[in-house]
Amino acid sequence: MWKEKLKLYDELVAKCERFERKGKTMPYTSANGYMFSLLNKAGEIGIRFSKDVQEKYMQEFNTTFYKSYGAVMNGYILIPEEMLKDLDKVAVYLDESYDYVMTLEPK
Prior knowledge:
Radius of gyration: 13 Å
Strand content: 15-25%
Number of helices: 3
């Protein structure tokens, strides 16, 4: 199952031309010194947003905070399984997340 989710995550990231997937055992995207999406060992995808946007999307997507290795990842929301049926739409959110981290002070 994890390999199928990895393939899906790779397809998602490939739809976004401004960045690429990194990591071998823990796939993620990063820019400006900040991770902004990742795939955990449970095969779940989390995307990072500003606090305001995060709260809005958690209600809109009927989802919760994203967890990786048992820890809540601050700023990340869990992308519901149902949304992964439309990768083009999720790619828009991933691009939005990239834009967000590019506004942060570089690390």
